[in-house]
Specification:
Blueprint (H helix, E strand, L loop, with lengths): L2 E5 L5 E5 L4 H10 L6 E5 L5 H12 L3 E3 L4 E4 L7 E2 L1 H4 L9 H8 L1 E5 L12 H9 L3 E5 L2 E5 L7 E3 L5 H12 L4 E5 L5 H12 L3 E3 L5 E5 L8 E3 L4 H13 L3 E5 L7 H9 L3 E5 L2 E5 L9 E2 L11 H8 L5 E5 L9 H7 L3 E5 L2 E5 L8 E3 L3 H13 L3 E5 L2 H4 L5 H7 L3 E5 L2
Helix pairs in contact: 1-2, 1-7, 4-6, 5-6, 6-7, 8-10, 8-12, 10-12
The structure holds uridine-diphosphate-N-acetylglucosamine (UD1).
Length: about 425
């Protein structure tokens, strides 16, 4: 298995191009299931998760061409079953459920099962489809949903769910009548998807607020669309600048999507400057400890919690990091502690006592964002860090070692 080896202590300076958002690209590619004909998507990142969704769509008979832009045509669907083999590697595969039921009248999708960052059930997706008249059965580890035509309904999500909102928004586009989603997720990726669907002829209003209204239509047409920049990748590079006392311009990022992080990083002593290319993040070399609580958007993103904890591990005092979105998202703590970090976990909170310098160590990635936090810690640490299980990072960061090297990091991948 590949390893990433980092000699820490280099200041990161220069410009980095932010790639398209994984979490926007995945639902957008699934939305092609709702129509016949060639859709064209720009700014799809080159990631393992994107290859997984291509494989999954391909297994239904969807034709996919090109690298950038990517063209997707779901005119000839031959199968409506998402097998366990593909779903288990990527939970977001559940995003095919809504579009398949809406277009084909049935879908069979493996349950994603347990996940390293908590139970992560899909009960809210299922309940919403039932509210729209689908018959749903759980059989042999699969969700099987059937509906001749889904019916518009008033749906309220007990918890703000990003893929749940996206799944049902897609399904409701082809339903009979109007669907209203209450307590809908407000993430920019939801808005990007709604814009794409409206470009296909859907009638969606309110995306970006917690009430989304979808008037069903009889058919949708193919579209040409662009994926928004990845706010989590941008945020990770901003924190990298802070950890190394660096000066990094994030080209093409959308600062409006990163307000909660930008404000926290300013509180932590960084300068964040709006520039023509995007955003300039400047670290002062001194990190002030701040408290952080993850929340659905526009709150502080749970996908940036691990990276922020790496920064706080080098803060000048105590920081309390509270995780409210997922129940078990502190697996990076024990690995950060191997690098000298002083962290105590109490339930949903991690108490981080900053130390002046982390030390390089052999560490292991446990999930996508945890691996990003370990890379950040390694960049700032004294000495050498060897990160194993790097396949996690390849799920969500395009060419991370190339981008970091170009900024001056001493980082290399050793292929096994
Ligand atoms: C999406 C993102 C992921 C991010 C997360 C939270 C994608 C592909 N992934 O994941 O990177 O970390 O949002 O911002 O966009 N829940 C239920 N029942 C459900 C659905 C969710 O209880 O049916 C719970 C989850 O366990 C979790 C919370 O709701 O505690 C939020 O999860 P959700 O927003 O659904 O996360 P994902 O959409 O899977």
């Amino acid at each position: 298995m590949d390893k990433i080896i980092i000699e820490g202590g280099r200041r990161l300076c220069g410009e980095v191009q932010i790639s398209g958002a994984k979490n926007a690209a995945l639902p957008i590619m699934c939305s092609a299931l709702l129509t016949e004909g060639w859709n064209t998507y720009h700014n799809i990142p080159d990631l393992v998760d994107i290859r997984t969704i291509k494989k999954l769509l391909g297994s239904f008979g969807v034709a996919i061409e090109g690298e950038g832009p990517i063209r997707v045509n779901a005119a000839n669907l031959t199968r409506c079953e998402a097998s366990y083999d593909l779903v288990k590697t990527m939970r977001a595969s559940i995003l095919v459920l809504g579009p398949l039921v809406a277009r084909m009248g049935m879908a069979r999708v493996s349950l994603p099962g347990g996940c390293a960052i908590g139970a992560r059930p899909v009960n809210l997706h299922i309940k919403a489809l039932q509210d729209m008249g689908a018959e749903v059965e759980l059989k042999e580890g699969y969700v099987e949903a059937r509906a001749k035509r889904l019916k518009g309904a008033n749906i309220y999500f007990d918890l703000s769910t990003v893929t749940g909102t996206e799944n049902i928004m897609m399904a409701a586009c082809l339903a009979e009548g109007t669907t209203v989603l209450g307590n809908a997720a407000k993430e920019p990726e939801v808005v990007n998807l709604a814009d794409v669907l409206n470009g296909m002829g859907a009638k969606i209003s309110g995306a970006g607020t917690d009430v989304i209204t979808i008037k069903g239509v009889d058919r949708l047409s193919p579209v040409e669309a662009t994926v928004i920049p990845d706010r989590i990748e941008a945020g990770t590079f901003m924190i990298a600048a802070g950890m190394t006392g660096g000066d990094v311009i994030l080209k093409g990022c959308n600062p409006q999507h990163l307000e909660a992080l930008i404000n926290k990083l300013k509180d932590a002593g960084m300068d964040m400057l709006f520039v023509e290319e995007g955003l300039r993040a400047v670290g002062s070399g001194k990190i002030r400890s701040v408290d952080v609580k993850t929340l659905p958007y526009p709150g502080f993103a749970t996908d940036l919690q691990a990276q922020m904890m790496a920064l706080m591990a080098m803060g000048n005092g105590l920081s309390v990091i509270t995780e409210t979105v997922f129940e078990n998202r502190f697996m990076h703590v024990s690995e950060l502690m191997r690098m000298g970090a002083d962290i105590v976990v109490q339930g949903h909170r991690a108490i981080v006592k900053g130390i002046p310098k982390l030390r390089g160590a052999p560490v292991m990635a446990t999930d996508l964002r945890a691996s990003a936090s370990l890379i950040l810690a390694a960049l700032a640490a004294e000495g050498r860090t060897e990160l194993s299980r790097v396949y996690h990072i390849d799920r969500g960061y395009q060419g991370i070692e190339k981008k970091l090297s170009a900024l001056g990091a001493d980082i290399q991948r050793v292929r096994a």
